[in-house]
Amino acid sequence: MQAGRKEIQRERMWRYFLNAATEVIETEGIENVTIRKIADKAGYTSSTAYNYFKDLSHLKFFAAMRFTKDYIEELPHYIEKGTNTVEKWLYSWECFCKHSFTQPQIYAGIFINNLGIVPEEMLESYYKIYKEELLGLPEQIKSIIMEQSFSKRSILYIQDAVGEGFINQNDVEFIADSTLLIWKGMMTTFMNQRRNYTVEEAYERALYYVHESVMKVVIPEKRKEVHFKPNINEN
Predict the structure, then answer these.
(1) Distance between CA 78 and CA 165 in Å, rounded?
(2) Tally of domains within the chain
(3) Is position 100 within any domain?
(4) Tens-place pLDDT, residues 187-222
(5) Burial of residue 82 (number of CB atoms within 10 Å: 0-12, 13-18, 19+)
(6) Considering the entire predicted model, what is its pTM?
(7) Which bin fits 79, alpha (ψ -120 to 50), beta or left (φ > 0)?
(8) Domain HTH tetR-type: where (predicted)?
(9) Do both 106 and 185 map to the same domain?
(10) Do 26 and 98 have their domain in common?
(11) Structural contact between residues 156 and 144, judged by C-beta atoms closer than 8 angstroms
């Protein structure tokens, strides 16, 4: 009984601090979030916040998850556009690129920034508290969302393409890693303003390179069955 009360108290405090962090992000941006601002907004001290979150990056990570709801809700609709696994995977990348380049700080906080801990454990903890955010999602989508490792997420998407005859098994890991590196590279370039890209240009260019990387390993005689085309001029 006592352990149950402690867990209820922990979940309650998590919600207080995450709600406060969400408000700070909405008004000031995730890059301006501090433990003090969050604690003040929640009505507690900074030391109390550190009793529940080991590091500011952890609190920002969980709060940032709140801002991926639109992506999670749209993802199944994008996947449905595809007629085979390669197309479905590319459409899922289109959805991810669209949302991530619209909110770069949010998605970098989840998928790029150093957290000092295994992110899978953090994501599992998040969805233990916010179970309602998974309601109504297909089981396949739930498994993808719950798998934080980007490469593993990609493998979950494209593994069936091997059985469908689109790619060879020994190419699965390659395209999972290469597409991840493409997205991370473009996201870092965009965030650091190394190129003068608009949101749309960065998103479209990232998706174009993802598409080109994937098509290079699709078995030649199957390429004509992949009709997904990114909206960018090759030149």
Answers:
(1) 22
(2) 2
(3) yes
(4) 999 999 888 899 999 999 999 999 999 999 999 999
(5) middle
(6) 0.84
(7) alpha
(8) 11-71
(9) yes
(10) no
(11) yes
